[in-house]
Amino acid sequence: MDKKQSRLRRGRQTRAKIAELKVNRLAVHRTNLHIYAAIISPDAKVLASASTAEAEVRAALAGQSGKGGNVAAATLIGKRVAEMALKAGIAEVAFDRSGFRYHGRVKAVAEAAREAGLKF
Questions:
Q1: Fold category of 3-115 in CATH
Q2: What pLDDT shows up at residue 60?
Q3: Distance CA 106, CA 119 (A)
Q4: Cβ(118)–Cβ(80) below 8 Å
C-alpha cells in the first residue's frame, strides 16, 4: 500500500463515521499548489466551497510567495468557507481532513474556520 492509498483509507474511515452521524462536513483537500475546502451535506450536496484556485483568492494572494501552497493561503480559505457557510445558515460541521495529518495547512484551515464562527 503506497502513501496515497493509505491516506484514502484513513479518509474513508473518517467519512464513514461522519455519515453515521448525519451532519454537514467540512472536507479539506490539499495539493502542493492549492488547498480546497467544501461544506458537504449528508446527502452529498456541496453547500459552500472555497479554494486557492479561485480568481478572487489568487488576486488576494498575488503579492505573496508560494501563493496557494502555504499556511497564509490556507487561513484565508478557512475564513472564506466559514463565512459562506454562516451565510447559508450552517453553524455546525464535522471536520473531514481526508486522511491528511492535522498540522500545517490542514490545521490552519480548521483554526481559521473556528475563528470565523464555525463550530466543530
A1: Nucleotidyltransferase; domain 5 (3.30.420)
A2: 87
A3: 16
A4: no
Q: What is the DSSP string of 68-113?
A: TSSHHHHHHHHHHHHHHHHHTT--B-EEE-TT--SSTHHHHHHHHH
Mean pLDDT in the chain? 93
Q: Phi and psi dihedrals of 24, rounded to 5?
A: -70, 150
CB distance 35 to 105 below 8 Å = yes
pTM score: 0.91
Q: Please answer whether residues 74 and 113 qualify as being in contact, where contact means their C-beta atoms are separated by less than 8 angstroms.
A: no
All residues at 6 or more sequence positions from 54 whose CB lies less than 8 Å from its CB, including other chains: none
Q: For residue 56, is pLDDT > 80? A: yes
- Domain ranges across the chain: 3-115
- Closest of 53, 44, 43 to residue 80, by C-alpha: 53
Interatomic CA distance for residues 85 and 106, integer angstroms: 18
The greatest distance separating any two alpha carbons of the chain, rounded to the nearest whole angstrom, comes to 43
The counts of H helices and E strands in the chain are: 4, 4
